Amino acid sequence: MRSLPRVAIHAAAALAALTAATPAYVHPHVFAEARLDVDIDSGGNVSALKHVWRFDDVFSSTVLMEFDANQDLVLDETELREVSKTVYESIGEFGYFQLVTLDGKDVAMQTDELFANFEDNQLIILFQSKPREPLKLAGKIDFGVYDPTFYTAIEFVRDDQMAVNGMPANCTRTVIRPDPDEALAQNQQSLTEAFFNDPAGTDMSKIFATRLELTCGG
């Protein structure tokens, strides 16, 4: 099985080994523009998170070269299925780069399928996830996307790329874009040398993630 996305993710291990233990030297090598839609059902529960990631030209070209088995410069349905399978398995090790918390506590999510497509010479990844247990809109719920290895930057360019469908009137919506320096300063006591040296990433890296925050009454 081809494994370029898996190699790309785990290449952070080599990167970390070559750099000093400081966030100034940890930076992404793969970039994707993202959209996140949070669907709310009629009962006020989170029913689904719908993700769309459009990757940069360089990484997209590398994937095309790696998975174009018949070398016709087009990824057919069979080749795209192989891309989908490989990415699904690779990022599954990292919870599909998802951040979902309820009042600061992680919410378990499940992702059953992932689809890859090529459009305008760019790799597009689409997948949908849902809470393992019913997630009622009450309190403070955060949604975001982050790579704990820092190798991939998933970026929401505009606030409207983090959308809520069916949001009740008792909820307010805010897009939070943490300032890296402020995030480091606020969490200095929690960060250890292992945070900066662990190539597998840590949960603390989510402090840098752009988040959609819903605050709802009971």
* SSE order, one letter for each helix or strand: HEEHHEEEEEEEEHHE
Low-confidence stretches: 1-25, 194-202
Shape type: globular
**Biggest pleated-sheet summary:** 6 strands, mixed
Percent of sequence in beta strands:
25-35%
Helical stretch tally: 5
Mean residue pLDDT = 81
How many strand units? 11
Helix content: 10-25%
Q: In terms of structural class, how would the helical and strand content be classed?
A: alpha+beta
* Radius of gyration based on Cα positions: 18 Å
CA-CA gap between termini = 48 Å
Number of domains: 1
Would you write up a description of this structure?
- The protein is of the alpha+beta class and 218 residues long.
- It has one domain (4-12, 31-216).
- The chain has five helices and eleven strands, in the order H-E-E-H-H-E-E-E-E-E-E-E-E-H-H-E.
- The chain has helices spanning 4-18, 57-67, 77-92, 180-186, 193-197, and strands at 30-40, 46-55, 98-102, 105-106, 109-119, 122-131, 139-145, 152-155, 162-165, 171-176, 211-216.
- The strands form two sheets. Strands 1, 2, 5, 6, 8 and 9 form a six-stranded mixed beta sheet that branches.
- Strand 1 (30-40) and strand 2 form a beta hairpin.
- The chain is globular, with a radius of gyration of 18 Å.
